[in-house]
Amino acid sequence: MNNVLKFKNKKANVVAQDEIYNFAYLDENTKRMIRRALIKALCIPGYQVPFSSREMPMPYGWGTGGVQVTSSCLTTDDVLKVIDQGADDTTNAVSIRNFFKKTANIETTETTGDASIIQTRHRIPENQLNEKQILVYQVPIPEPLAFLEPRYQETKKMHALSEYGIMHVKLYEDITKNGHIETAYAYPVKTNDRYIMDPSPIPKFDNPKMNNNPAIQLFGAGREQRIYAIPPYTEVTSLDFEDYPFDPSKAPHKCSICGSNDSFLDEIITDDDGNRSFICSDTNYCNQRMKDK
Amino acid sequence: MEPILSVQNLNKYYGDQVGCKNMNMTLYPGEVVGVVGESGSGKTTFINSISGNLNPDRGKILINKDNEIINFLEISESLKRLLIRTELAFVHQNPRDGLRLDVSAGGNISERLMSIGQRNYGNIRQTIFKWLDKVEIDKSRVDDFPRTFSGGMLQRLQIAKNLVTSPKIIFMDEPTGGLDVSVQAKILDLLRKLVRELHLSVVIVSHDLAVIRLLADKIIVMKNGEAVESGLCDQVLDDPQHSYTQLLVSSVLQV
ipTM score here? Predict the structure, then answer.
């Protein structure tokens, strides 16, 4: 009895989390259910695993899928980084970071290299990830065929039978209309030479970073109740034509803060006269470069 | 010569209702078989059952693919859909059912090409132009949406979309229904030309005896879900034996 009390006290000291919540908000049964979905998703790269998404204390579209995946992956030793469009300091990123600080009492960071789990909305960090890291994407619409074939039953069949001709019809239409492939974000990829996957709305500039990445990449769509994944060192190719190859283009500018030539840039309108400047979308990358200078 | 498609004792019921019953058919390469009958006689059920759109309750459908006989009703779903994409083609009565209306004309034609793995935009574009030419649609319309096309053009576009991968067997359900007479004549002319040129094997359903007489080599007359008479097209239409066929032939307006 004494021992139990002692243990409880000790645990309470270590964790010292808000007693109202279970560790990382979700109850253990839910986390187990999500972990099972995650394992299945990792076994079949790019395949969308249905899961029973829970109500979270935030609206759909704010990253409920990503939060549930992060919650299921977190341990007390983890260091969490949350980015929104590359930035650590926007509302969504700050709120989710505070959410886990409060419910899991874990350490958080803004430094990509220090994080063990990175939850992201619409970007992959510029710094190369490593084998000890997990990247969790927030996904609004997981089905890459949704805009071409509205029937869910039919898209399931098309995935099962690799009937992906229609995906190239979209790219064909792009080239015909614009002379090049106009799709600039949510650019469809083929994972492990099998499933066509929506990489969530990351810019196509980030697509090559998914290929052969040493980190685990997990995708959670809360409203649509789907989880999918890319295991480490998996081949991820962007769809294209032989005579119109994939081009991970970016704005032809330098970052006006750190001067980086090869990071993804946000366009900022600076006054009412239409003046604009370009800065790194990855705030941590930009800050580090400034510090190094 | 081996038949390219043979249907044996095919039955399809909707609950207690007969869709079609005890249907038999053999289709040889380069041959056109016409299926006629009044509305509700089971023509469409029959063509849907043998083309993979419906699952028949009983019977056999044998398809000859490069001298290998495939039992169409017993193969896996994936092989079935691959066959439907490559060896078979279905031309709907309403072209809007067979086309993607929010995809350009060229995009519609290209879909089957890309689904069998073609990945060269330039080559695909060439093939599209070749087929627009074949179905007599002006090349300048290649990037227009089907909804800007006339009924006759839509039907020709649907035919091009289906024939672009050179399928062996074409199913057509009333391909000229709902078109005015001069456009009908144009489509029929085109179909007859393509059948000859490409050595197509066709099953065509129509209630219009004139269409069947023009295109078909053999004919099956259906009533209440059953074939009441079948044989060579000219023979059946010139010397109908069954009372229903006689009625059908005598009801054709003589202009």
Answer: 0.84
